[in-house]
Structures are given as C-alpha cells and as structure tokens.
Write the structure tokens for this entry.
Amino acid sequence: MRRQSCLARLLASSTVTAMLAIGLGGCQTAAMSDVTGSLGAKAETKSEKHSGTDPQRTVEVYGERFRANPKDADAALKYGLALRAIGQRAQAVAVLERAAILNPGNKAVLAGWGRALADNGQSQQAFDVLSRAHTPANPDWRILSVQGTTLDKLGRHEDARRYYASALRIMPDEPSVLSNLGMSYVLTRELPKAEETLRRAHDGAPVDSRIRQNLALAVGLQGRFDEAENIVKADLPVDEAAANVAYLKQMLGRGANARVGAADNVRQSSRRSRSES
C-alpha cells in the first residue's frame, strides 16, 4: 500500500510528465528507426557494448573524414550518429547542420540533423527540419514517428498521435512507433491505454529491452510493481536484471521524491511565516 501510494503521488505530479518528455526521443543513438522514449540510456549502452562496436573509435574515424571533406554527406551522417552515441549531442547538431548547409536538399542529411536536434531537446526546430526531410507524396514512417516524439515533448499530444497514426498506416504494428505512441499515453496519464499499446509493441519486438522498459514503466505507474520488475528482468543475466530493476525503481521513485520534497519545503515555509507573525 505504501508503494502504491508513492506511485499515485508520482503520477499526480508534473514531475513525471517532464521526466518522460525528456525521455521521449532523447535516448536514441543507433539509427532513426530506434525505439524512443525508453527509461534511459543504460540499456542502449549495454546493447552497443554487446554489438562489438566502439562509438569512440567511430567518432575518430568519421570525424577525420568529415574534417577532410565537410561535403562528404555519408561521413557527416556517421560522425553525427557516433557523436550522439557518446552523448555529445550539441556537437552532433553542429556537424549535421554544417553538412545540411553544404548539401542543400539532401533529405538523408536533413533527417539526421532533425534527429540530432530532437535528441538535444530542440523540439520545435527538430520538427521543422524533419518536415523538410520527406514529402507528403513520399512520407517516411521513421521521420513521422520522430516528429511525433517532438510534438509530445512540446505538449501537443493529439497532434503527435496523428503522426504516429500516419506512420502506422505505412508500417502497421511497427514496434518502435507503437512504443512512442504508448509513451505518449503515459505522458497524458492514460495508463491502461499505454499498457495495451506497449504490450503490442513488446509482442512485435520481445527482445528489445527499451520497449520492455517502457512497458514496465507503464505497469509500475499503475501500482503493479512486482509485475513491472518481472518484465524488466525477464530472460536477462542476473547483473543486467538487477541493474534494470534498480533503474526502474529510480524512475518510479524520482517524481514521488521530488513531490514530497516540494511539500516539505512548503510546510517549512509556512511554519517560518507563522513563527515570524
């Protein structure tokens, strides 16, 4: 009961909305088709480690290529992607912006720049740039999905869902789009609908740890924490399962703690005022 009470306070607070809005579209590093809105970058880092790639080495290789020829669109895209992978989001934006200037009309570069802007929290500019990266006559479901996440971060949830719906018309039941849509419902506290959507995403990509984390968050926010724990640690080695459970607890507790702390500050301020009077 105590745990459920904390979850209820978390859900009632604006902190969870801000926290999830930051997460939407902000932790993607491998490609535009990656799942957005996951709990955080930890699972993604593990995935990259197991893939055998070295983002730092990739930064060095493609950074050298880009500096030698800033018009090399392929080098710019891979350099920007690698910069995002190591968390240098502002630098990724700068690289891809320069590439877009030097390659006017290159839709792949525009898409990469827009994705980098979204990662860096520049949601409105990201949406505008991504709108130039495809056309109504030739829409790209990946870009539509990312545009949806930018609109969610701007608080335009109904508009965001129209973009997800458009993406799903092109790619029905695409797990990454369903994951974004599910997190959109989490942001507006429509938790049963969020859970249903995220279960569909998980059914389509059961090994994707980020979708699994999103589903666990939606379940945990409804007070079913034991079930949420089982979701995040299913089929994982003991150390990774423990890390995922710890991170889930952190996410579910952060908003509640912030709200309790704010209430304590208000009470202390009120006591000081009465004392002064």
